[in-house]
Amino acid sequence: MTNLTKQIEKAVKKIDSVSKKFRPTVGIILGTGLGALAKEIKEHCVIDYGNIPGFQKSTAESHSGKLVLGELGGKKVIAMSGRFHRYEGYTMQQITFPVRVMKALGATHLLISNACGGMNPKLKGGSLCIIEDHINFMGDNPLIGPNDEKLGPRWPDMLAPYSHELIKLAEDAAKRNNIEINKGIYVAVLGPCFETRAEYRMFMKFGDIVGMSTVPEVIVGVHAGLKILGISVVTDECNPDQLEPTDISKILANAAEAEPKLTKIMKEVISKI
Ligand code: HPA
Q: Residue 181 contacts by C-beta under 8 Å, 6 or more apart in sequence?
């Protein structure tokens, strides 16, 4: 048994001791300022990350650091209210450990939200963008190191990391609720500083949105065979010719504006899975 498998077993044992072997099918990871979905969950139990072996402390502002198990949209779910980022100093393996644990508990689907910068001029602050595909510009990968074939293949293909079926469900939910939603390519960077004008100019050629998270969890989700949906909330507009200062309060304000729309879509998608 590899070290990683042993760590996963320890975390599962601890969660099982609190949850009495609750078996979720849908994993949820909530991004910066986007914790409201967790409040809609009919709670079975809530566990602080600090009480789960292998989980790190959530240090980023507005990330609460709790695992919420319960029911949402008629499904058993497990939600991370607060995620880990590479810029907090954690390794890619530490950031993605909760995805391994979700899979071990029974999750087949993974829904992820995040706050991002909108580089495509169509994407205004407070709007939503379904992630169609990504570019990993983080210079790191959570699958580096020995591979445990029981957890996934050495060379997972990335032909469709984001499930077409789930994207369709999200688009349908948006349409039903008259919510405008776009689709785009997410460029993942390390952070924690925002991009320079020159970097935005370069990344605009690569994709539509830019952010500091999500891709590590998606890579591990693909490795683990999960069906994945990612929805980004555009929290700042990244026009290199008219760049305005970005700060966390502006990001949180735009996230708050978009949050009810995101929550509605995620909830409906879960009910249709
Ligand atoms: N760049 C990177 N990450 C981000 C941004 C951005 O402009 N906005 C929110 N997260």
A: 127, 128, 129, 130, 170, 171, 174, 231, 265
Report the SS3 class of residue 141: coil
Contact status, residue 151 vs residue 114, Cβ threshold 8 Å? no
Please, what is the average pLDDT of the chain?
A: 95
pLDDT tens column, 190-204: 999 999 999 999 999
For residue range 134-182, what is the model confidence (pLDDT) as tens digits?
999 999 999 999 999 999 999 999 999 999 999 999 999 999 999 999 9
Q: Identify the structural domains of the chain with CATH numbers, from first to last.
A: 3-272 (3.40.50.1580)
Ligand 1, CB cutoff 6 Å, lining residues: 115-117, 189, 194-195, 210-212, 235-236, 238, 246, 251
Distance between CA atoms of residues 54 and 264, nearest Å = 32
Percent helix, percent strand, percent coil in the chain, to nearest 5: 35, 25, 40
Instruction: Tell me how far the alpha carbon of residue 192 lies from the centroid of ligand 1, in angstroms.
Output: 9
- Two structure tokens written together for 45: 């139990």
CB atoms within 10 A of CB 150: 9
Are 228 and 162 in contact by the 8 Å Cβ rule? The answer is yes
Nearest CA to ligand 1 atom 10: 116
